[in-house]
Known about the structure:
The chain is of the alpha+beta class and 101 residues long. Helix content is 37%, strand content 35%.
Amino acid sequence: xxxxxxxxxxxxxxPKARELAKQWAEGPAQKxxxxxxxxxxxxxxxxxxxxxxxxGTMKVTGTSFDINIKLGMMxxxxxxxxxxxxxxxxxxxxxxxxxxx
Length: 101
């Protein structure tokens, strides 16, 4: 198993961050074949996602997205590409939501 850890800070607040996380779960995550379960909390939301060879969790707060992914043996070779895509996609989403794009 190989782990991918990613943290992206933001200044969006929880309601806006929650909306972005839902959009991710309903769009890009589904396109990658991930099955997602979203749990809302007062201070933090959690999205659990999985597919064959991949499982992970995204913690969504008013100030950050924290993503932890466990990759199976066959997916471990794609770790650098997965890390780069996560960074690029979340950066774009946050810029757009912040009105910077």
